[in-house]
Amino acid sequence: MRSAEGRGRTLDEAVDAALIELGESRRNVDIKVLNEGTEETVVEVTVIDQAGASGAAAPADGKGELARALVEGLLKHMGVRAQVTTRPGSEPMTLDISGRDLGALIGWRGETLRALQSVTNVMVGRHLGEGERIIVDVERYRQRREHTVREIALRAARQVKMTGDAITLDAMQPFERRAIHLALEGDPEVTSSSIGEEPERRVVVGLRKPAAE
Amino acid sequence: MTGRAAAVRIRKAIALVNAVEDGAGDEEITPTEIAEAIRDCLELREVDDVANVRRYLGEALDAVSDGMPADFVAMTLYAALGALQEGGATSSSN
């Protein structure tokens, strides 16, 4: 499997650097953040094995193939022409939907995508183990959103360190808030917490208070 | 603006259910809270303006009471939201 390391001032710049080296588009790669600092971000970008990612290679994982076939059938009934593949090595199991003009499948702030994921999990549920779930992603929307909110978090953290004032971010979905908490958990100077109620729950980034002596 | 308030409340209930599944790890949501959010929807008279909305909400409430998986509850709530929108309600989506 081909992979490359990318460095940049921001996450996007680092990913772009690696993509240029690989000559690939974001659709065909998995991105792993190796280091996310205020000065530099380092990522490892790995090209997805297209043969391995296709449904044809899925028989080794019966659940993956079953879920893939069910979602493909569902999309067909919806009149959506798209390709469904299982993301290799993903944990939890992730189904990638790709095709043209799939914006409607994502919906406003990912609402339709979230609904599609719920339906998928209900359809496949009885074949899954306790606590096992399937993530559905359209054109890597979830992955891109996670990267975007991480960028927002790092920018907010820089600003908080400069001004000392806490910043309240926009209302976000749980997976986005989690990405922010994870992005900032290693930063000794700032802290993140959530306030408000769903669906208006927001992350607040503030200065970490020094430990009491 | 038939259905706007109902759509907002249904979305809130869906957000609570999704938060259980997607867990950001920054809150603890109980089935009681989800049931309360669904009851808030059922209190609105406008859920009777469109066919099936009350039925789907009732099924979602039953699903919470029966301890059904969050995805099942979410799917039933999406059905209610869809019925509301197809019934001519306005919404902020798309």
Topology:
The complex is a heterodimer of chains A (213) and B (94).
Chain A: E1 3-8, H1 11-22, E2 29-36, E3 41-47, H2 50-53, H3 62-78, E4 82-86, E5 93-99, H4 103-106, H5 111-124, E6 134-138, H6 141-163, E7 167-171, H7 174-184, E8 190-195, E9 202-207
Parallel strand pairs in A: 5-6
Antiparallel strand pairs in A: 1-3, 2-3, 4-5, 7-9, 8-9
Helix pairs in contact in A: 6-7
Chain B: H1 4-22, H2 31-42, H3 53-65, H4 70-86
Folded structure, characterized:
The complex is a heterodimer of chains A (213) and B (94). Chain A is an alpha+beta fold. Chain A is 40% helix and 26% strand. In chain A, α6 packs across α7 (174-184). The radius of gyration of chain A is 19 Å and the shape is globular. Chain B is mostly helical. Chain B has one domain: Four Helix Bundle (Hemerythrin (Met), subunit A). Chain B has helices spanning 4-22, 31-42, 53-65, 70-86. Residues 89-94 of chain B have low confidence and may be disordered.
